[in-house]
Amino acid sequence: MAKVFNWNLGREMAYPYEARSPQRQFAFVFNINRCIACQSCTMACKSTWTFSKGQEHMWWANVETKPYGGYPKFWDMKILELLENANSGGQTWSGEGKSAKNPYGRFEGKTIFEAAENTLVPDSARVLGYLPADEEWNSPNIYEDNPVGDRGVRYQLDQAGVQLPIHKTWFFYLARICNHCSYPACLAACPRKAIYKRPEDGIVLIDQSECRGYRKCVEACPYKKSMYRGNTRISEKCIACYPRVEGTDPESGGQPMETRCMAACIGQIRMQGLVKVNADGTWAEDRAHPLYYLVHVAKVALPLYPQFGTQPNGYYIPPRWVPRPYLRQMFGPGVDEAIERYTNPDRELTAVLQLFRRSNLIIYRYEIKEGKKIYEGTLNGKPYALHNDTVIAYNRDGKEIFRTTIEEPVHIRPGVHANSI
Q: Radius of gyration (Cα) for the chain, nearest Å?
């Protein structure tokens, strides 16, 4: 295997192919604290891409309830168990994050690519994974809204554990799409080389004329976002609505546009963009880009299961009420810092959070114009001041898309109108 640098892990790792970085990388941030599991994203994707015969089980976008839910069933629990069995007690992190090349420290364990070298015999099996059984694809909403109570106590919720910062009875919603990874496991495993990353935006696609339905991609993807279609005998996956992203969709007016699942989000949990990438796969410094700011400056958005080694391009602001060990397993060692900064936001973070879902166009740059102080007091026991700043978003051409203030304006309707009694 070749050696590639994975900045999520803070080190080089083994991967079947040499690293090739796109001009820009499709990436997104989901704020789990806001997700209400309305499934608007799920149905927007379903009604656009996967409504045909043979696609009944395909949910490229889905929202699952953690800790018990998952689609396919228990996908993350199974791959975590496989990794632990391959490297018992060794899946650990060391050090502290100090730079863009190791923001979370160094992962000392084995990735799904490195673990495969010790556990799988065939040369074609380049990735540690498993093939879900048919019945595991049956229930996209299994265990929805099922909370967990006191540890070791079944069928009973904690009677008093309702206070932040950590609830004793808890669950949360995890919205998911394909992460369009920098080192995709599906691409690594495909014996036909039918899977590729687009050089212009890093979107991972399957060339269906080359696919023969071996399902190696389904087996390899640790997030289980590559899916086999039985009536055509080929695999399919999220295509990141690439006509919208590249600005060729009729709605876009020639400007890069967010995907269908993003545009349908009524909880305003999502932001999507195209980030600049260095030759070694790290994000190029772009201080005024909202995604760069959230991931590398504020450090409130974290990768989903970075220990898998795929360097996913989906990032999550962790839910602040969930026990920290569970979140560290899911998002890595940056959880405590991320929650602290999100819970006690500074002036710039407060402004950037207003950019979520204000437009369907992709934001390339933001600017903040300072406003007057509108509140001063305490937040979570700490001194806090809120300013009514204006945050301005710009498109690819540097033209303003929109501007919004921290304090939403109040509109009072006149007393006489069509529905007055």
A: 22
Q: Tell me which residue range forms the domain holding 151.
A: 2-343
Distance CA 251, CA 243 (A): 10
DSSP 244-266: HHTT-STTTTTS-B--HHHHT-T
Tens digits of residue pLDDT in 50-98: 999 999 999 999 999 999 999 999 999 999 999 999 999 999 999 888 8
Domain count, the chain: 1
CB 405 within 8 A of CB 388: yes
- What CATH number is attached to the domain comprising 10? 3.30.70.20
Angle between helices 112-119 and 75-86 (to 10 degrees): 60
In a domain, 64, yes or no: yes
Instruction: Enumerate helices (H) and strands (E) in the chain, giving the number of each.
Output: 11, 19
**Residue 229, in any domain of the structure:** yes
201 belongs to a structural domain: yes
Q: Kindly state whether residue 243 falls inside one of the protein's structural domains.
A: yes
pLDDT single digits (tens) 208-232: 999 999 999 999 999 999 999 999 9
Place of tokens 């963009």: 273
Cα separation values, 349 from 193, 258, 272, 343, 355, Å: 42, 22, 17, 11, 10
Which of helix, strand or coil describes residue 360?
coil
Q: Quick one: which of 284, 406, 270, 286 has its CA closest to 348?
A: 406
Q: How far is CA 224 from CA 72, 374, 376, 393, in A?
A: 7, 46, 47, 34
pTM for this structure? 0.94
- How far from 376 is each of 243, 267, 349, 379, 405, CA to CA, in Å? 46, 27, 17, 9, 17
